[in-house]
Specification:
single chain; alpha+beta; 5-stranded antiparallel β-sheet; 16 strands; 19% strand; rod-shaped
Length: 616
């Protein structure tokens, strides 16, 4: 900016200097020419008046003496008297030198008009003036008394030339002195102006930088100036605006951070930071309103998966849910790999460092900090990093979100983590609420004594389960289990021991079926087992396995050890009952009756010869 200011100021002053010198030169020239013209006119009028007097006094022969005297006038190159045609007719042609010598003189004699000519070359300047004498009967002298001419006829002319070379040189000398003086003055003005405007220049340059920073969202820049005029006031105003904007935006970010419960990563652009955090707050608020209307936890986890994968563009992450009752973890969503963690956490949740400590786990802080990460060989070489975030639900770690990323994605992930925590923080109370609702619903479906599902649960799932079995074309094994001589236990040892026996046998049955199978307290000491998606004949083998497990399990009671047995009836849906679930239940119950009738502690597979009725 300083170079442009100096250049523009210099150009302006130079143009003004050239214009001033040009104007002075023009008026010098005009003054010299007008002065010479006035001097020549004075000489011509003097000659005319003198000649008129000579004519009146009849001493016209003295005109040459007059001309010789006038030639001594400084700068007069020559002076001649020209004789017009009217005078020639009256007095003769006269001397040769009285005749017009060039076109200029002839033009004046013919037209009777004054002719002025300036002749210039590099060495000399001549100013020529030819003035006609015109006959007139008015004025001080009546020309018609002496000349036999008409009114207005040209009598003659005076032709003279003035040498202006000397005056030209004088003018050039004066112009040179003026140019030097004016040039010095303009140089001085230039230096004064540049020095005077230098603080303003620096202020404008700083102002450009500060306003540029404002445009980029950095409102911490300030203007420094010693100016005390309007420019200084403008600088103070800009500083005040920057301070207010910085305060307002910082206050907004702090309040929003307090509202969402975490601080976001800040950049140098306060405008974009504020816009980003407010925009994210709106999205998080919308997310919370949406998940509050969801029915199940699974829907909330699906939305979290969408946010991590689609919105935040993460391609490697896991979401785990903690099962407090079993102290195990269950993968809800895994992207980029089948499992990013060792499967041991699925059996023992405390093997997960984030779950156990309740704190974030960052492999950047300490490489391979969690030994249960499945790819620690890549982590040790800084090939990939991971960041695990525990989510508190009801005062305990209810789930864990794990972000896996390459080393060059570190800054991007660090920027996302606060926002991820914001979504998880909003999801936490909703997950707690949904978990409580599911727990309450589950308790309504669970028998409080044995922990098995109850008859209400069976009625809830039977239609959906039977439809799925038919659609998949698989077998649903139905086992009806009854504890042998259970009434004797209650009669001999009391109901407390009877409850203990019922719980132990229920647990034994659960331990000998798959996680996907259902164990239901059907009524009293009778237990139903539903084997989902089993093969034909497999139900009978599982039933025998259960029978042996119960028979071989001692049950400790006060005063000794009990051993109990069970009788089991088996049927297969839809093979045995043409797609009628409750008919198969009845057939399994018929088989159970046959098992008891046959001596108990045995498994009986239903056959159609056991059923005497025509239809169920």
């Amino acid at each position: 900016m300083r170079g442009r200011l100096v250049l523009k100021t210099g150009a302006l002053l130079l143009a003004l200097f050239i214009l001033t010198v040009g104007i002075v030169a023009f008026f010098f020239r005009k003054s010299v020419i007008e002065g010479s013209e006035e001097e020549a006119m004075t000489i011509a009028e003097l000659v005319r008046d003198t000649l008129t007097s000579y004519m009146v006094l009849n001493v016209i022969d003295r005109k040459d003496l007059l001309l010789e005297q006038i030639k001594d006038t400084r700068g007069l190159e020559y002076i001649r008297i020209l004789r017009g045609e009217a005078v020639k007719r009256q007095f003769g042609n006269g001397m040769e030198k009285e005749n017009p010598a060039d076109p200029i003189e002839r033009e004046v004699i013919n037209t009777g008009k004054v002719k002025k000519v300036l002749l210039e070359d590099k060495d000399k300047v001549i100013y020529r003036l030819v003035i006609p004498y015109v006959a007139s009967s008015s004025g001080q002298v009546n020309c018609l008394q002496c000349h036999r001419v008409k009114e207005g006829e040209v009598l003659g002319a005076i032709s003279l030339a003035v040498d202006l070379t000397g005056k030209k040189n004088e003018a050039f000398t004066m112009l040179g002195l003026y140019t030097v003086t004016a040039g010095g003055i303009f140089v001085f003005l230039f230096l004064v102006i540049v020095k005077h405007f230098d603080p303003y220049r620096r202020l404008f340059e700083d102002m450009k930088k500060v306003l540029g920073n404002f445009k980029e969202g950095n409102f911490k820049s300030r203007l420094e100036t010693d100016l005390r005029d309007e420019a200084g006031e403008l600088a103070q105003f800009i500083n005040m605006v920057g301070e207010q904007l910085n305060f307002i935006l910082t206050n907004i970010r702090e309040k929003v951070s307090m509202l969402i419960g975490y601080n976001v990563m800040e950049t140098e652009n306060a405008l974009k930071d504020t816009e980003k955090i407010v925009e994210e707050l709106v999205k998080i608020s919308h997310f919370k309103r949406t998940i509050e209307q969801d029915i199940r936890k699974a829907e909330i986890y699906e939305r979290l998966e969408t946010i991590l994968g689609d919105y935040m563009s993460l391609d490697k992450f896991s979401i785990y849910e903690v099962d407090e009752r079993r102290n195990a973890m269950r993968p809800i969503a895994v992207q980029g790999e089948s499992m990013w963690c060792s499967e041991v956490i699925l059996e023992n949740a405390n093997e997960c460092r984030a779950k156990r400590t309740g704190h974030d786990v960052d492999s950047q802080e300490f490489p391979c900090i969690c030994p249960r990460f499945a790819h620690n060989e890549l982590c040790s070489t800084h090939g990939i990093q991971y960041y695990c975030i525990p989510v508190n639900i009801g005062g305990k770690v209810g789930s864990v979100v794990q972000i896996v990323y390459e080393k060059d994605m570190d800054m991007f992930v660090r920027m996302l983590i606060p926002y991820i925590k914001g979504y998880l923080q909003e999801a936490s109370p909703v997950l707690e609420s949904k978990s409580l609702m599911e727990l309450l619903q589950q308790q309504s479906y669970v028998d409080q004594l044995t922990g098995l599902y109850n008859r209400r649960f069976l009625e809830e799932i039977v239609d959906k389960l039977s439809a799925q079995i038919k659609r998949r074309g698989t077998i649903l094994g139905i086992l009806m289990v009854d504890i042998d001589y259970f009434k004797q236990v209650n009669d001999k040892y009391g109901h407390d021991v009877g409850d203990r026996v019922l719980k132990e046998i229920a647990q034994t049955i659960k331990n000998n079926v798959r996680e996907a199978d259902y164990v239901i307290r059907f009524g009293g000491e009778e237990i139903m087992v539903l084997l989902v998606d089993s093969q034909e004949g497999a139900a009978e083998r599982v039933a025998e396995k259960i029978r042996q497990a119960v028979e071989n399990r001692p049950i400790e009671v006060s005063g000794g050890v009990l051993k109990k047995t069970v009788s089991i009836g088996v049927s297969e849906f839809p093979k045995d009952c043409e797609g009628k679930f409750w008919q198969c239940v009845k057939f399994a119950d018929v088989a159970l009756y046959k098992a008891k009738e046959g001596g108990r502690n045995r498994v009986v597979r239903f056959t159609h010869d056991m059923w005497s009725g025509e239809e169920y």
